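Researcher: Here's a chain I'd like modeled. Treat it as a single chain, no partners, no ligands.
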Amino acid sequence: MKGASLIEPICENSLWLQPPMAHGMTSAVLGGGRPEVALRTLDALLGEGGEEQDESASVMLLAMFDGASRGAVDAGLVRAAARRHYELQLARNNHRKAAVAAYNLGNHLRCAGECEEALAWFDAAANSDPQYLDRSYLHRERANCSFELGDFSRAADEFEEAIKLGDDFPWLPLLFSDALTGCGRYLESAAQCQLAIDLPDPLGAAARMANRANMRAAELFGEVQHRVTDVSFELGWESEPSEVDGALEQDATIAFAWLLKARRAEDPLEDLICAAVFSRYDPAVLAAASYQALVGGDEIKAHDLITLGRRHGGHLFIEDLRNLCAESQTEDLYPLACSMFDDAEAEANVPTLIRVLSEEAT
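Model: Modeled as a single isolated chain. Structure tokens:
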């Protein structure tokens, strides 16, 4: 094979063992189908014990973690080498490098979905070098693993610590909210949801709320925890803003409460889309959101919302939209809505509301 033959000069050149070259060259060796060369070289580096050799081994392992995720090298062998690297650093009293080795192995395991073992290695990083506890990303990763393992209390504590340390990961308030909901701290969870809504980040906080409600809550928390109150039945169209806010503090996924917020909002589109998600794509609510996008001149969101309306409501949806245009004396918008409705493919390329919320307005 031509690709394999090109690897031979690399294998014979010791320059690839120097830290600046090790990652790219290891990737090339793995890509050329020679994982045994990379593993043999890594084993030799680990045995030599010099500072440059340790650095090269660490860099090689990062490339081999990536290779293992692609099936280019046996993951079990790479993980065994990574554990040996960690143990050697501890034996040499090089606690900083041991912590780095443990963290990198933990990160690889988390990406592979092996959260229990990953969490143990993240803890090992902190135990090897207590200064790692000052790094917000360690707490975020430990929180993610704890959350996936169902330990919502620890996840909440770790997310909170990451925030205190200044972690600016854009989804962090919503992830923290998930964990708070999981351990029954509902009012605090709602506060984090509101914080997420207020953050000026391009991904769209309301989209993340929709994602949380649709994909996380039902799957991980169950109906008893997810629906903590029947407060939505106590709300009416004349409810005061404070009553609406109070309802959302108890359950941030009440569709009717989002509709009430939309009635009073200067720009109600995001509230309407949240209501559409939490009402399981009710045609009338989708029509209201589509109408608002049309009125605001946002044809991108309007098109995708109308596509969703066709998929979930059909002609009931377009009739609701026609009535809204007629009642508001904006009949000129209806032909555009009909054109989008006719162009939409009901069974193909249906957008998600996550994408709708994150799109730029025209």
